[in-house]
Request: fold
Amino acid sequence: DDCVEHMMTHGMSMYKSILDDETSDILRSWILERNKSLKKSDEINVISNENRWSFYIGVNDHPSITKALNQIVKHEQFRPALEKIVGPNPAIIEMTAITSSYGAEDQFWHPDIVSTGSPTKYARSFVPSYSLFITLQDTSSEMGATDVCPGTYMCSNNDAADTCEHVGFQVSGDDKWKKGDAIFMNQQSFHRGAAHNDPTGPHRVLFIISFSHKPFDQGETRMLGQGGSYSLKWNMWGHTLADL
Reply:
């Protein structure tokens, strides 16, 4: 209940130990290997694309994905909070990875849903959605730990970007964003991938899975918010948490 209240206030919350160290390490190694063999047709374009890689992930692409999803679904704190926020057995609307290497620049502050097609502005037309960003290694500020700007999920225009320059902060704080920990964020929240400025630091890898209310469940007929990438393989469309 405290997690739900925190999320409804700030639009984002931290969850510890979503994945264990072994699973994080194996999944990270697979993602880095996959990056090396990416074809142009497989890549997903991201903001400030140079020295960043992203691709669609399927549930059966590697055994570590199945193991990771099992840990997410069974997490004693996250699972009940997720279902109180998004409803029982929510829909899966995105599963991807984003990797940043040394030289990646700051992205601009942005939400993953545009204000003109958002639940904040048109609550009867669009359904809220939420992303779980899991770091697969200890991530320092110099390695580009994600910048966040709590409360901005309530903003119905893009003016929040100016405010976030002054009040936004990195998930790592003054220490590190610990391997396997996650930030759960309303997709209307302003955030950005920060610059990777550590020449000796490893690649920063995030595993991302996004959720929304299950369509046509208990009368839910609203559309997904507009402007998001919804990076999901076509054969994953229509799947729910229980399916995974």
Q: What stands out?
A: The radius of gyration is 17 Å. The mean pLDDT is 94. DSSP finds five helices and 13 strands in the chain. Residues 87 and 213 are 6 Å apart (CA to CA).
